[in-house]
Amino acid sequence: MEDLSFHHPVRERAGGIRQCAIVGVVASGNLEVLVERVLPDAECVIEIKTAAMGFGEVWCAVIGDFVERYSPGGLKFSINDGGARPDTVSLRLAQAVRLIAGSDR
Length: 105
Known about the structure:
Blueprint: E1 2-9, E2 20-24, E3 31-37, E4 43-50, H1 56-70, E5 75-81, H2 86-101
Parallel strand pairs: 4-5
Antiparallel strand pairs: 1-4, 2-3, 3-5
Subcellular location: Cytoplasm
Main location: cytoplasm
Family: Belongs to the MdcC family.
C-alpha cells in the first residue's frame, strides 16, 4: 500500500450543510471517497490509500485539477483506491462534492 497526502489552500468554502458523505466502492478499477467538513474554510486535505504504487505524479495532477475546479474549502477527503483510472477519480471526487453540498435529509 502507498499512502499519499495533499494539502491545498482554496479560494472558498464548499457549499452545503452536510457534514459528511461517501461515494463509490472499493472494487476492481474503482475507489471509495469519504468527504468530511472538518477543516477551516480556506483549506482542503486529500488523503489516499492505494495499492497502485508509483503513481504519485498522476495523483498530484488529478488532485490539483480537482481543487482548482471545485474549490472544496473546509473538506477532508479520504480515498481508498482499488486501482481507479484518473477519469474515475475525478468523477468520484466531483460526486462527493455534489453530495456534501446537498441538503442533510
